[in-house]
Design brief:
The chain is mainly alpha-helical. The protein has one domain: Winged helix-like DNA-binding domain superfamily/Winged helix DNA-binding domain (Arc Repressor Mutant, subunit A, Orthogonal Bundle), CATH 1.10.10.10. It is built from five helices and two strands, in the order αααββαα. Strands 1-2 form a two-stranded antiparallel ribbon. α1 packs across α4 and α2 packs across α3. The chain starts with a helix and ends with a helix.
């Protein structure tokens, strides 16, 4: 995985754990749309960095029933990753807005050229 992918997964996982600390890894993986192995890697990395602590449920019938706790460092990391992710997404959003504006302008300029193609002209009108 590359750095951004890891950070994105870590952010999503920290967010999920902050909301539901008693969720099983299998359920977390399902909800995040990733493999159980990838989820286990992320949990291990978060624990290794000191961002989460895992406590075993006493007397649980499930083999691996854990309670996940975000540490103060984990809360700080979650906040930092949230800001980084928001900045990146805002930049991507602005780039998409610019591209949509440019494409819309292209369609407006091409309308004269589209007069011969009623179907294409109609689609361009619907979009813009």
């Amino acid at each position: 995985m590359n750095g951004f992918d890891d950070q994105h997964l870590f952010h999503r996982l920290l967010r999920l754990l902050a909301e539901e600390s008693e969720t099983s890894q299998r359920e977390m993986a399902r909800r995040m749309g990733i493999s159980l192995g990838k989820l286990n890697y992320c949990v291990s990395q978060l624990a290794e960095r000191g961002w989460i602590k895992m406590k075993r449920f006493a007397g649980s019938k499930r083999k691996a029933a854990y309670f996940y706790i975000l540490t103060p460092q984990g809360l700080e990391a979650k906040a930092r990753l949230t800001v980084q992710f928001l900045r990146r997404r805002m930049h991507e959003y602005e780039e998409l807005r610019r591209e949509i504006r440019e494409l819309s302008e292209d369609v407006e300029r091409l309308r004269g050229d589209l007069e011969g193609s009623d179907e294409l002209l109609e689609e361009a009108r619907r979009i813009v």
